[in-house]
Amino acid sequence: RKLFFDTHALVRLLEENGFTTQQSEVIVSALMKIMNANLDMIYKDMVTKVQQEIALQQVMSHIGGVKKDMIILEKSEFSALRSENEKIKLELQQIKKQVMDEITKVRADNKLNLNLEKSRVKELVSFAYFLLEAYKDRHAQQDRALTQTDRKIDTEVADLKTMLESHKLDNIKYLAGSVFTCLTVALGFYRLWM
């Protein structure tokens, strides 16, 4: 062991301050025993460089194993997300088809109603011309009825357009919500594993 002080100089110092040579040597010897005991205690708690490198290698191998497990888990989660995304796409296609079917039905119903209204309007117009010749004073009432019918047709057409737009917006909202949900889940898994 290396001592970091001069024992002979300590013996001399003690002798100069009134101790005998034998007393000085005994004091220095006791100090050395105490220091050696303390150093032994310190060395028991210390780790050698070889032990530290072995522990570091073990930790690195554990980290490598964890990384491999994370990569495998990430791939399986990614495939699960991909299959979930495919399911959502299929559901979206089904919903889109249903909405398109509903739109087609609404359009057909509206065309039928529109044609019926047009035929009614034509009948009213022809009847109005007949009454115009017969009754000049009822001309104003028939014009009002025709105007109301036109407004009703315009209102129904505008309502249908509004309904179609709202269906489009609902589809877009659902699609956007689904995409953002998928992205949020993907980012959540990505953040969770990183």
From TrEMBL:
GO cellular component: mitochondrial inner membrane
Subcellular location: Mitochondrion membrane
Key words of the record: Coiled coil, Membrane, Mitochondrion, Transmembrane, Transmembrane helix
Transmembrane segments: 174-193
Main location as per UniProt: mitochondrion
Highest taxon in the source lineage: Eukaryota
A Gene Ontology BP annotation from the UniProt entry: positive regulation of mitochondrial calcium ion concentration
A family per Pfam: CCDC90-like
Family according to the record: Belongs to the CCDC90 family.
UniProt protein name: Mitochondrial calcium uniporter regulator 1
Natural source organism: Pterocles gutturalis
